[in-house]
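Entry:
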Amino acid sequence: MIAQLGKYRLIRLLAEGGMGEVFLARQEGPMGFAKPAVVKRMLPHLAKDTTFVEMFLNEARVAALVSHPNVVQIFELGEANGTYFIAMEFVHGRTLRALAKALKKNGEAFPLPHLARLASQALTGLHYAHTLVGETAEPLNIVHRDMSPDNIMLGFNGTVKVLDFGIAKAASQITTTRTGVVKGKFAYMPPEHLLGQPRYGWFVPPMAVRRGWPLNG
C-alpha cells in the first residue's frame, strides 16, 4: 500500500537508519504533474525525543544551506501527522560503494582516471560547503564529517553528488553534537578529526588506501 506524507506519495523503502527511513517518493500535483523525490522520514518512536528531533531538524537546516550542482538538494522540511520529514532531490544512479562492490565482484579494477574525475566533482561540492559564508559574510565552517563511498551518488547521466549532511557540523551552533562524541566512519576519518583538531578538506587515510579504496567493501 502506497503511503502519503504531506504532498509526497511514498513508493518504496530504500534504506533504514538509526534516525529515519528513506523512501523513493513522488510529488504529485494537478494536471498530471509528477516529480520524483527522496523522502527521509523520522522514525515515529523518536518524535517525542527532543534530542533526536533536534538532530533531524539540524540535518535539514545544514543541508539547506548548501546549494551546489555536486550536492544533493533539499526541497523542504515538512511535518505531517506529527512526523517530521525531509524531501530531497532524487538522483537516478548508484552510490560509489555499490559501483565499487559490483566491480570487485566481477574482478575489475576501478579505472583511476574515472575515479579521479569522480573524486574531483565530490571535492568540488565539499569545498563549496566548507567555504560557504552567511548573510553577513561570516564563514559558516560547514564540515560533512561522514564522507565515504556510501555518501557519493553517481547519476546514470554522469553527475556526481554528495549526500547525507546528517551529521554535518557548522560554526553557527545549529548542531547538537555533545563534547567528546566522535561522529563518522573510522575507516575514512581524518586523524585530526579523531584528535579534535581543525579539519581541512576531505582526507583519505592510509588505512583506506591500503585496503584499495573504494573497493574495500
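The beta strands are 3-5, 8-16, 20-28, 34-42, 74-80, 83-88, 93-95, 152-155, 160-162.
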